[in-house]
Amino acid sequence: MPLFTSVLVTPPTTEPVSLQAYNSLRLPAYASDCITIAQSAALLEVSHRLAKRPRCILGGGTNLVIRASQESPLQATVLINQLKGIVRLSGVVDHQVRIRCAAGESWQSFVMWTLAQGLAGLENLAGIPGTVGAAPIQNIGAYGVEVAEQIEAVHVWDFHQHDHAVLSAQDCAFGYRDSLFKNPEIQGPWNAPRYLVTAVDFRLWTDGRAPLRLGYSGIGQKLRDLGIDHQPNAYQVAHAVMSLRGEKLPDPDQHPNVGSFFKNPQVPDAFAASLAQKHPELPRYPQSGGTKLSAAWLIEQAGLKGWADSRAGVSSQHALVLVNQNEATAEDIQALARLVQRRVMGQFGVWLEPEPVYWPAG
Ligand code: EPU
What we know:
25% strand; 9 helices; 362 residues; 3 domains; Uridine Diphospho-n-acetylenolpyruvylglucosamine Reductase, domain 2; binds uridine-diphosphate-2(N-acetylglucosaminyl) butyric acid; Uridine Diphospho-n-acetylenolpyruvylglucosamine Reductase, domain 1; 4-stranded mixed beta sheet; Uridine Diphospho-n-acetylenolpyruvylglucosamine Reductase, domain 3
């Protein structure tokens, strides 16, 4: 399939555009105008047109809180990234294959495509909502794997140079739910991002050769529950992961959400040890440079799992997920996030950092 097919670009709009269908929290948000980019050839013209004008880039809207009413829409052109296509870049070398996927492809569809091709490496990341272009931005991770481990390069449009550029995995400075694309010193403010991701190059394994990661709690047991006792393949691991996600996380169609609303906080080892003396059951994950704690556990112990008012709530399935109960606004979600932060701070002395991006920032 060729990369970057379909129409060039839809014309800019004049009325405020509703973004409710474009954000997975289903917040009633509006923008002054909106351009759908479906072919990379459109980028040069768009880049010059928006050089000195506010802009922001939307993928699947699955990690985004937009604060902008119809009366006061976002004063920025929203670029909806719908670049499509997947190509195989190489034959098999050392049991590995290189694949390029355009940024507007659905992440889940891409993972399923790789598995159907007999390729492994992304199976633990099955079932994550959002687009391929958003995956490197927050370095999506689940079940002991981060996407950075399989990324070879990220292709971008550079709004400063008005040209394409390629960033190596090292250039991307990946960290836990973090990358160069979240660094305001490089990427710029929320309404003037320097880079738009156009495609991502992955290095994947031919199945049977992949070092499958089954150690994360739950995967091994789930595989056994599914009757798979010996040598699972990547597809079976993905199936187990999707099954675990289905049990643990609220269904976004019924309870709109952005997945984890907070990052798991990293604290000094000594602080974690003193907390664990008071709370021996506190989950702790030692890292280089500190101990990671479970935000979900802290929120649940603060008595907030399942807490809800008429509009927004903390999921009763997973305490890390804030949900739109019923016509919540961004202000409702933000007020709930602050309540969670203050309660956890008051009880444990730990400040939880939100994971999603806010438009406007701050
Ligand atoms: N826990 C609770 N209460 C809950 C849920 C979990 O106490 O309501 C405890 C569990 O018992 C466990 C610990 O919290 O001891 C960790 O729970 P879990 O395995 O569900 O993982 P997590 O650290 O809460 C992270 C990612 C998820 C990813 C899961 C599975 C972050 C911020 N979140 O959650 O990612 O699916 O691991 O690997 O790192 C996302 O980013 O949107 C997301 C869902």
